[in-house]
Amino acid sequence: MNKADPLENLGNDDSLNTEIPPAPDNYEFGYPLVSKRSEEDLKKFGLNMVEDYRDFKRELLSWLATYGKNPEKHEGLAETTLESTHYKLETVFRWLWRYESQYTTRFTPEHANKFIRVLDQSDGMIDSTVLHHAKDIQRYFRFSNYVRGTEYEWEVEIELSQSNGDERDYLRRSAFEPLYQAALDHSSVKGYHSVSPEERSELKTFVAQRLGIPKEKVGPDEFKQANSWKYPSMISVTLDTGLRPIEVGRAKVSWVNLEDNELNIPKEESTKNEAHWNCAIKKRTAKTLRRWLDERASLEKYNGREELWLTQKSSQYGSKSCNALLHRVIDNGDVPIPEHRDISWYSIRHGVATYWANHVGPHHAKEQLRHKSLNTTMKYLHSDAETRNSAVEQIW
Fold first, then answer.
1. Tens digit of pLDDT for each residue in 3-50?
2. Among 64, 33, 87, 84, which residue's Cα sits nearest to residue 146?
């Protein structure tokens, strides 16, 4: 008996609606939209502000309840998550009014950076709590981008560990080698004449997409051109040095020191502009970088540019483009990451910092990860799963 073709009931791409309709405004909340503390603060600016803010919170929370988890799939936040997000955002906006000395609902990435720094420096504030606030701020920015048309991109700038029993969001050492292998596989294409005509046709489609050219123009030379050391070099350098997304974008060819197997970052070009950093890279990474530099020299878009890596659109890398790259590599590889883990480019940095702090030493970790303060490094000095698993095997 033939099974039904699952494609029969699907429409074509032209019928897909990418627009997200407005969230319903009749969502019922089991808690006040404006907390007592917020109401007291707002009354100092005027009674009308209370009602305006209540309208804003209804729109925001209704949208998060409908689309907050995944807008494209029309998936909203769970009720408990929505309520937790609501109260954390109350704290965020109360801080905003005090900071601006006026009522406003315009909260920007610049505000977010300042708020997170204040929160992180507060007495008794643990990293996991700061991270939860950051996650809720990102939910607000998602709402703002979809509903208000902003184009906010934001990730936490300061160093925060998952040290309070929460180890979900850093990349484990067991995934380091598989991640590099996945980048290598993703960037490699078989030889034009070494595959069957059927497989060659499939690969032509892939090569055409990678190079941005028509499929009919793909030949043996294009197959060779589609092989690249760009992604493997980006991943391997980050696995060695824990590059932040902003550092991936700022990295220059002049930083690469293949003679000493180092990445030399001048003080004036470092993220915090605080020190000259000499970060060690492994021999394998140095070889990968050498191959990438040779390849880079042959690419026209790098003519006159100092950046070590550029995106396909010839722009500098940032959080969004680094995360997109990472997800493509992971999706096409065999990287041991549990499905429930939320992995970003910063997860690599956090994983590298955790390994260096726990297995090499905090002072070496501070220099390799370019931390201003040893206190930042010490946040990564905690009981990780790898250490516990090793210890339990040796205890008796």
1. 555 445 545 544 444 567 888 877 888 899 999 999 999 999 999 999
2. 64
pLDDT digits (tens, 9 = 90+) for 154-175: 887 766 554 443 444 688 888 9
Residue 280: strand, helix, or coil: strand
What is the rounded CA–CA span in Å between residue 387 and residue 365?
17
Q: What is the pLDDT of residues 123-165, one digit of tens each?
A: 666 667 888 899 999 999 999 999 999 989 888 776 655 444 3
233 burial type by CB count under 10 A (0-12 exposed, 13-18 middle, 19+ buried): buried
pTM for this model (two decimals): 0.59
Decide if pLDDT at 372 tops 70.
yes
In this structure, the dihedral spanned by the alpha carbons of residues 339, 345, 348 and 353, taken in order and rounded to 10 degrees, is -130
Other Cβ atoms within 10 Å of 221 Cβ, number = 9
Decide which of 1.20.1250.20, 1.10.443.10, 1.10.3720.10, 3.40.1440.10 is the CATH code for 173-188+227-383: 1.10.443.10
- In contact, 78 and 24? CB cutoff 8 Å: no
Q: Which of 189, 171, 169 is nearest to 180 (CA)?
A: 171
67-118 tens-digit pLDDT = 998 888 888 998 888 999 999 999 999 999 999 999 999 999 999 999 998 8
- Pick the closest to residue 238 from 180, 163, 158, 154 (CA basis): 180
Q: Is residue 249 over pLDDT 50? A: yes
User: What does residue 57 show for φ and ψ, rounded to 5 degrees?
Assistant: -65, -35
What tokens does 253 get? 């060819």
171-199 burial code (b ≥16 CB/10 A, e <16): bbbebbeebbbbbbebbebeebeeeeeee
Domain segments of the chain as ranges:
21-148, 173-188+227-383
| Backbone region of residue 38 per phi and psi (left: phi > 0; alpha: psi in -120 to 50; beta: other values) | alpha
Tokens 């726990």 belong to: 358
- Round to whole Å and give the CA distance between 306 and 197: 41
Question: How far apart, in whole angstroms, are the C-alpha atoms of residue 329 and residue 337?
Answer: 12
Q: Exposed, middle or buried: residue 260 (CB in 10 Å: 0-12, 13-18, 19+)?
A: exposed
